[in-house]
Amino acid sequence: MLVYPIYQLGLISFFQYTQAQVSGGEPTTFKGFGNYSELFSDSQFWQVLLATVLFAAACVVSTLAVGCALAVLLTRVRAVPRLVLMLAALGAWATPAVTGSTVWLLLFDPDFGPVNRILGLGDHSWTYGRLSAFFLVLLEVVWCSFPFVMVTVYAGIRAVPSEVLEAAALDGASQWRIWRSVLTPMLRPILTVVTIQSVIWDFKVFTQIYVMTNGGGIAGQNLVLNVYAYQQAFASSKYSLGSAIGVVMLLMLLAVTLVYLRLLRRQGEEL
Amino acid sequence: MSLLRGLVRRPWRLAAEASALLIAVVVAFPLYWMVLSAFKPAGEIESSEPRPWTLAPSLDSFRRVFGQQEFGRYFVNSLVVAGSVVIVSALIAFLAATAVTRFRFRFRTTLLIMFLVAQMVPVEALTIPLFFTMRGLGLLNTLGSLILPQIAFSLPFAIWMLRGFVKAVPDALEEAAYIDGASRTRFLWQILFPLVFPGLVATSVFSFISAWNDFLFAKSFIISDTSQSTLPMALLVFYKPDDPDWGGVMAASTVMTIPVLVFFVLVQRRLVSGLGGAVKD
């Protein structure tokens, strides 16, 4: 169920596969790397690739920063504020991507949204400009993905035995020093896991872009690779081209995976 | 931890607590706005003076949602998909996690790495070949086309997470059970299963959410038979980019979010400890 589609994905990406072949009107012909060369000579592909990498990077950095900061904050407060913040975060986490996207659209709606009203922006449209549309999607992505980071890092901090911290304090280490030299190294495995997971998730953002920018924005200005592949395959019926994009994404994520496994190995973790 | 907290002087703690509450409000605001808009009468949502309260709550939007679009049907469809995915993948993941933790066999490490790699595969890219597979199996436009891939995609993460829980059960317990005359099956279901149950709950949350929220498979595999649609698709019926029916969208969103929220609040405690445990090992 998992290996076979991957195999097929690779296979399709080497063939000429459009609507005619799907309906059986024409035989499937082998194209070799034809789809890939078509893809790599397409300037829109490179533009989308660049946008995807930058967008994913921005999402990962913001998500991690917010998540870790709030995890630290959680350790500094008493039970009631902690529970309140935890519940709010779980609510954001539990919100389905489709509903989250539509709610954020309504919040930033030029006519009826409260945000423009509060900021005094009049009827400024957030989805019109390229950057502001990406920014809006970024906000939604961070909103729904920081809780995972926050909860995991918080659980990690709590799991650090208090004797270690006491020993450090007895040895005269300052707060800052404890954070930098004791907690951060102990939390490194957890930080690695959440970073890699965030990279994977944010690189693959689909629903948010699809819903919030209505399938890629005006003239495709907000396309990311995932949506681009989907559009090529299902909207333009260029299944093989879509598959080729999928393979490129897969390879990029595999590279990330290898780095991740390397890191695990170096920490001497047994699988 | 208490020591760390003690080191922070009081005014700092108050400031931290105030900001925690403030952030909680900001984080919860979209959800609040969603529920609020669902209850606002039509004229009030589309007013240029949005107010954070409503004086005349109405159920009109909910009525529109439940009335027009076979919504009950979609709801049941979503429940069927999410329910079967959770149950089947929890069972398989339990057995598989036990197998890779308790037994040493050839290619065990290879298998584990494959589970990890499988998590990294962009699901969206696989939609294309899956579409043809589903067509070949004659499953297009059926709920089966949603259940099968969801199970496949939720398993790697579930097995990976459950492994930590199975590992935490000491080997001595297994030996003691055998000495007392328990069979393998009996140990598996009457001793190991209850012990690993909290972990199963935590992993089920993930499979439930991904199955419940799935938008991609539903959009791609349920092409013509709308009676097999699920909730995310129903939601988009109300959202037309040019003239969205905000009240309808928000009411449908509320209905869709509530089951997940309930599920989350129920397992909240176990989830936090479950995640901590899984990541540590």
Question: How would you portray this structure in words?
Answer:
The complex is a heterodimer of chains A (271) and B (281). With 271 residues, chain A is mostly helical. Chain A has one domain: MetI-like fold (Orthogonal Bundle), CATH 1.10.3720. Chain A is built from 13 helices and two strands. Chain A is flat and about 75 Å long. By secondary structure, chain B is an all-alpha fold. Chain B has two domains: 57 residues, no CATH class; 214 residues, MetI-like fold, CATH 1.10.3720.10. In chain B, helix 4 packs across helix 13, helix 8 packs across helix 10 and helix 10 packs antiparallel against helix 13. Chain B starts with a helix and ends with a helix.
Name the descriptors.
heterodimer, A: about 270 residues, mainly alpha, 13 helices, 2 strands, about 75% helix, B: about 280 residues, MetI-like fold, 2 domains
Question: Short summary of the structure?
Answer:
The complex is a heterodimer of chains A (271) and B (281). Chain A is an all-alpha fold and 271 residues long.
Estimate nothing, just give the exact number of structural domains of chain A: 1
Helix content of chain A: over 70%
Question: What is the beta-strand fraction of chain B?
Answer: under 5%
- Which CATH architecture of chain A is right? Orthogonal Bundle
- The number of helical elements of chain A comes to 13
Q: What about the largest sheet of chain B?
A: none
What structural category arises from helix and sheet content of chain A?
mainly alpha
**CATH domain class of the largest domain in chain B:** Mainly Alpha
Question: Could you state the order of secondary-structure elements of chain B as H and E?
Answer: HHHHHHHHHHHHH
Main interface: chain pair and counts: A-B, 95 and 91 residues
Query: How many strand segments of chain A?
Result: 2
CATH fold-level label of the largest domain in chain B: MetI-like fold
Q: Quick check: average pLDDT of chain A?
A: 80
- Residue runs with pLDDT of under 50 for 5 or more positions of chain B: none
| Gyration radius from CA atoms of chain A, angstroms | 23 Å
Which stretches of chain A of 5+ consecutive residues score pLDDT under 50? none
Strand coverage percent of chain A: under 5%
CATH superfamily of chain A: MetI-like
